[in-house]
């Protein structure tokens, strides 16, 4: 069977699974065959072996069942680089790149800042991206999920950062007697009941999405302990849902009454990032 014929035959199974299903399937085929997407698009007359047909059928069945494309690929792009992912990790998203950009801009203006804490690291994409873009920093990346940290370890090794990015199994902040110049937190912030109504529910790890009754349970715990981990001059960044700005600002002011607290918007114009700057206590 030729590739084009196979795609025509199976199209009713996978077309419309997502808004970009045709693109997704071409990317998936390229990955499975070790080819470029351009090769897939220009070699529709290629004969498929029985093994290739079986491989495609298995993966297209998973795609049809709702397994996200990044999990089928085992990788996804973030901040211009490719990172390993697994079903133990949240899939990196473009809106989270705002956190990296914000941290790098602050580090550029604070050359003495060296210590970075990445709370809820998942794949490690935030902490690793910061370390790759700023040679002087040392990063501690924490997560409660050991399987997620195993993925982060692979990404650290991929970019040869074993000496600069250290992993810690921890519920929020690691048990270290250390203060951090920068603290990044991308914690679960979707309210529990709302999460159950979203398409993402059951497809990505609930541990990385469920923020409790109002979505802010973990952020309350985090801000309760953050003063012990920050020096007089520091930056704290937290990703949040668009309707959580006022509550997050209140949490920040409660923990750091003199801080400069602002909310940054993502590319779609939605409130996305809490920025807390400490310039002396």
In short:
This protein has 281 residues and is an alpha/beta fold.
Keywords:
seven-stranded mixed β-sheet; single chain; two-stranded antiparallel ribbon; 2 domains; 11 helices; 281 residues; Rossmann fold; Helicase, Ruva Protein, domain 3; alpha/beta
Task: Please render the helix and strand layout as text.
Elements: H1 3-14, H2 21-33, H3 37-42, H4 50-64, H5 69-73, E1 75-78, E2 81-84, H6 97-109, E3 115-119, H7 125-133, E4 138-143, H8 146-158, E5 165-169, E6 182-185, H9 192-195, H10 217-225, E7 233-239, H11 245-255, E8 260-265, E9 271-279
Parallel strand pairs: 3-4, 3-6, 4-5, 6-7
Antiparallel strand pairs: 1-2, 7-9, 8-9
Helix pairs in contact: 2-4, 6-7, 10-11
What does this structure look like?
It is built from 11 helices and 9 strands. The radius of gyration is 21 Å and the shape is elongated. Strand 8 (260-265) and strand 9 form a beta hairpin. The model has no long low-confidence stretch (mean pLDDT 96). By secondary structure, the chain is α/β, with parallel strands linked by helices. The longest helix has 15 residues, at 50-64. Helix 2 packs antiparallel against helix 4 and helix 10 (217-225) runs parallel beside helix 11 (245-255). The protein has helices at residues 3-14, 21-33, 37-42, 50-64, 69-73, 97-109, 125-133, 146-158, 192-195, 217-225, 245-255; strands at residues 75-78, 81-84, 115-119, 138-143, 165-169, 182-185, 233-239, 260-265, 271-279. The protein folds into 2 domains: 3-67, Orthogonal Bundle (Helicase, Ruva Protein, domain 3), CATH 1.10.8; 87-279, Rossmann fold (3-Layer(aba) Sandwich), CATH 3.40.50.150. The strands form 2 sheets. Strands 5-4-3-6-7-9-8 form a 7-stranded mixed beta sheet, with helices on both faces. Strands 1-2 form a two-stranded antiparallel sheet.
């Amino acid at each position: 069977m030729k590739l084009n014929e196979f795609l025509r035959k199976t199209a009713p199974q996978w077309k419309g699974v997502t808004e970009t299903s045709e693109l997704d399937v071409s990317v998936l085929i390229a990955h499975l065959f070790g080819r470029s997407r351009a090769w897939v698009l220009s070699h529709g007359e290629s004969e498929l072996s029985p093994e290739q047909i079986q491989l495609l059928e298995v993966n297209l069945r998973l795609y049809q069942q709702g397994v996200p494309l990044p999990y089928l690929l085992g990788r996804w792009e973030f901040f211009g680089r490719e990172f390993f992912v697994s079903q133990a990790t949240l899939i990196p998203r473009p809106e989270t790149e705002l956190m990296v950009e914000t941290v790098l801009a602050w580090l550029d203006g604070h050359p003495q800042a060296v210590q970075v804490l990445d709370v809820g690291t998942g794949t490690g994409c935030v902490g690793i991206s910061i370390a790759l873009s700023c040679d002087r920093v040392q990063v501690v990346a924490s997560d409660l999920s050991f399987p997620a940290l195993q993925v982060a370890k692979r990404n650290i090794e991929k970019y040869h950062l074993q000496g600069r990015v250290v992993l810690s199994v921890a519920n929020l902040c690691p048990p270290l007697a250390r203060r951090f110049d920068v603290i990044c937190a991308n914690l679960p912030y979707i309210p529990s009941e709302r999460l159950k109504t979203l398409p993402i529910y059951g497809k990505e790890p609930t541990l990385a999405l469920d923020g409790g009754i109002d979505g802010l349970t973990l952020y309350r715990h985090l801000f309760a302990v953050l003063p012990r981990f920050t020096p007089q001059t520091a930056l704290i960044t937290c990703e949040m849902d668009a309707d959580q700005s006022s509550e997050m600002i209140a949490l920040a002011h409660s923990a750091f009454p003199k801080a400069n607290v602002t909310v940054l918007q993502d590319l779609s114009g939605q409130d996305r990032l809490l920025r807390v700057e400490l310039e002396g206590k």
